[in-house]
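> Could you send the Metalloprotease PmbA prediction when you get a chance?

Sure thing. Input:
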Amino acid sequence: MTTVLTPDVSASDDSQARLEHLEATAVRLLERCRASGAEQAEVSCSEERGLNVNVRMGSVETVESTRDRGIGVTVYFGKRKGSASTADLREESLEATVAQACAIARFTEDDPAAGLADAALMATDLREFDGWHPWALDADRAVDLALACEAAGRDADARIANSDGASVGSGQSLSVYANSHGFVGRERGTQHSIGCALIAGQGEAMQRDGWYSLALAETDLESPAAIGRHAAQRALARLAPRKVATGEYPVLFSAEMARSLVGHLLGAVSGGALYRRASFLVDSAGTQLFPDWMSMHERPFLPRGLRSAAFDAEGVATRESALVEGGVLQRYVLGSYSARKLGLQTTANAGGVHNLEVAANAGDLDAMLRGMGRGLLVTELMGQGVNNITGDYSRGAAGFWIEDGAISHAVDGITIAGNLRTMFSGIEAVGSDVDPRSHIRTGPILVGRMTVAGDQ
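Output:
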């Protein structure tokens, strides 16, 4: 439920005019690239605006207003590539950027995989997906919202002794991608957030946790008071943690932690890791990695999806497709360069995946806890102990011990370990309560057995 109300900003919305200016700049740069002898060229133009405020203990710490822009030019002379960029839109700077890109290309080695994506793959249906929702937010109002969020959390319980602060952010971005195939794609998007981090307890018994809400439209944000109270509840729940005996147990990753498991899969099946043979999933397309009930689908056309798009970073038309179906890895995640290196075709994933949905086969988190009976619920992960080449997984963790299907006590200072291939095949359930704050859309994920290192 949302309590943040703002005035109508449509009358002052100049985004289309700004996009037209960026498009004109991109087209002009492509003409200069052709005049300089480039056989192929691509140009990216972007502009971003943002407001971010941070408060702590009832006082304003920072207020930051940003305006950034950038121009990127890439040219191809045969199979030789050169790139240059600038943030200066003066004509002489743009001319120099093209000249620099061309000079670089003339001195580089031929790369058989270099070049634009195939012209036949360019997007033609250039729709928007309800991702443009400017927020008429000034600094005073942003500060008031952040203070209200922190105050709600601090007032929730006397055991909230300190705060790491609250923040409010609002941003908008415009971008144009154009290439010498004649493709010109325009995108615009907004993103807003409210968050709070609180500290419960005293001295060495202090515990920190927080909560945040993120959305493309401010009307989809949780209220500041609800965010503050949720942050307080999470911090209080972590008081008086205990260790657990070292052993092998079921491990349930909360939704916000579960998406990191999916992220490891995406890293392992991305083109760059595969053609360098730096992945434990080399040559795994078409093989069973997950239980036969499990599926993951890319949904690039979701209204208000965090990563919805009609085309990828190379202008290739996106499409709905399965990444995993029946537990089998259906394809890799490729742009045109990595696809050519592998002798394959791009999957329209230059720049990443677009709204990857993991299908659920279980109820919400409470139902999953009851079904698990006894084990570990992970709500925080620490460290970078994941080896993408071998799949070995070892990370610091914190969360809650589950006994008889309910939370027994908080847990921290432990390590969970396994191998990603074994963990993927050992997934027993995916929950239905999806965390909406990421383009990786998954509920909690239960891995049937992992090594948990706690007290000996």
